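To whoever is covering the structure queue this week,

Two jobs came back overnight. Logging them here so there's a record in the thread.

Job A:
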Amino acid sequence: MESHQATMPKAARATATRRGSLPDEIVIWEILVRLPAKPLLRCRAVCRAWRRITSARDFLLAHHDHQPSLAIFSGHNPWIRGVHYHSILAFDPRAATDNDRLHAVAQLDDVFYPQASCDGLLLLSKLGSIGSTSRLSICNPATHQHAPLPGPPWNFSTMGMYPHRPTGEYRLLLQRERCKVVPDLPPNKDQPGCYVLTLGSGQPPRYIGWPETASWIFNVPVRTHDCLHWYPVYYPESDSNPYDPACGIKFMVFDTIAESFREMHQPVVSNYSYIFDMGGTLGVYTHDHSAQVIDIHVLQNYESEVWDLKYRIKLPVAEIKSLVGDFDNYRDSDVISVDGGVLLLVTISEWLFHIDSDGKLVNSFYRGRDGLSMHGCRLKQSLVEHTFFPALEGYAVNASPFI
């Protein structure tokens, strides 16, 4: 493995002089590179050398690599500066205080819902008026960059967002429904199936085919090994039922380089199962509501598709009931990978519960009337500049919808 001295840019080595007891090389490449985005921006005021080095693209890419991947939520909030605002929140289990663990990464002046995330970017959906479809926009919460996206037509839905490594472009994977009847809208004669939209290109979505499994309904995908992976959460009555043991249980996988689809076997689990990122590999967690147990399978070998039942978490029902009274309304949960292990997040009404892999209730957070919605997306903060932003009409920085 290369040393920091070998990989740091020449400009950084040239300015690596001692300040007190630590050389700049250590301060920059061991300390500053690990800071969250806001503290790092404040550190740029220390001296010109720090500002120059921490603004360089190679440093910003290294900084992004060191950021944790955080589960995100949305919440409605009361008034601030005379505006009713909507928060995008992140949960950081490594933070020192409760306020820092569940914290706002963006405050918006309207109601937006995260649809997808990638490399510090959030794809947001804003509901339109009654009878119309949602409107999409793209933002970077760390830099307060935002731009509305030229709408794909009314009968597109978003499947995911990804970087296309061969070109450096960021792209949306869209799905045009086979059958979708909306009153008062003209019939669309274009081909149903999956499409790719390149951000900032000015080009319409490009058709790439219709895999049989695309007719299923999916949650937020997990991106690893240059692929997007989905677990089917609903499927129409058909011969291709993904839960049919005779057919095998499968993920749908999209190769983001070749932009083609394939299938991948997954563990034999119940219908109430969801996919998550297990530190660079895949995990599947399964609800057993009757026993209040969460089973977690982890992919041991990506190529051979070997799975292992690694955790069985018995929920601390008695402790949770002492706070919320009724546990029967529990539906939303998420599993996140932390330092090689896992922790479980459960939302019930206005509460968020943090549970470790032994079933111990670690923390509880009460949101009151602000509420809390779980989306399954992850945010890994980034200060890297993206060239597609200025190409989008309506692009702005530190302006609405950011407060």
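Job B:
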Amino acid sequence: MKQKRKMSKLKKRESRMGYVFVAPWIAGAVIFLIIPLIQSFYYGMCNVKITPKGMLFNYVKFQNYTDIFRLDPLFIEDLTGYLLDTLLSVPVIVVFSLIISLLLNGKMKGKGIFRTIYFLPVIVVSGPVMGQLSDQGAASIPAMNVTVIAGVLKDVLPYVIVEPIVGLFNNMIMVLWYSGVQILIFLAAIQKIDSALYEAAKIDGGSAWECFWKITLPTIKPMILLNAVYTVIFLSNNEQNVIITSIYNDMFAINRGYGFASAKAWVYAIVVCLLVALIALVLKNKKDNYLTEVKREKKRIRKLEREREQLKRRQDRRRRFIKREGSH
């Protein structure tokens, strides 16, 4: 009874310590996330004016939200371009990251050096540097004739779709530079896959290609979703994003101000959340039948091995018992 009381006290103490460790994060989230979100939503419902006496708020309900589509016709165009650009860039970045992580997971010399090389641009290259590279045309692959590609695409696709595709080719190097974090996430997920699954698949006659589609890909599906969401968020708040720049400019514009910029930011945030939800819906984890069968077979083999060990121990005890009885 006393031991149970001691255990309950220990659990309560551990739970309190957990709250203590989480408290700084909760305080930071409230101060730097929740309160600014509430302020931003309130600004979006008001006409905000900055005077020598301070900020004046005139409650206008949803007027700022309607003015976005009425007074800023470029916003719809920028938003459409952002969606098309993101939907094109995310698969390229995720697939490239997966291929590089598979190569780095293989048996090769200097894997640590290659990991550093692929992750180095994430640390070194900042927003202004990327802007300079893009302005000087250094973000595209030199051997790729983008003009010819654009001419071919314009004959078969509408301009709205051709423009983001050409922009993707123009910034191909920048897009590939964005894949450092994703490569590390994929690499960590691949290295955690149990090698017994591959061994069981090879016993069944599975090739390397089949192992990838039936074992590797289903196992790292949660990481594919994580990398896709991370890439969307990274591209959404990137300094090269036109919408982010327009929100910043509207905040200091005389005829628009904080209220208009806050409303535009909320519309943009809702669009980004819907895009993330769409990606999560498409990439939601579904159980693979082959992988389930392999895991079930693996459990069955372990169970048989345990039964053999138990049978062997019983036989050993029986032999020792017979030997002891015979000696008497």
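Note for Job B: The beta strands are 46-51, 54-59.

Please reply-all if you pick these up so we don't duplicate work.
Q.
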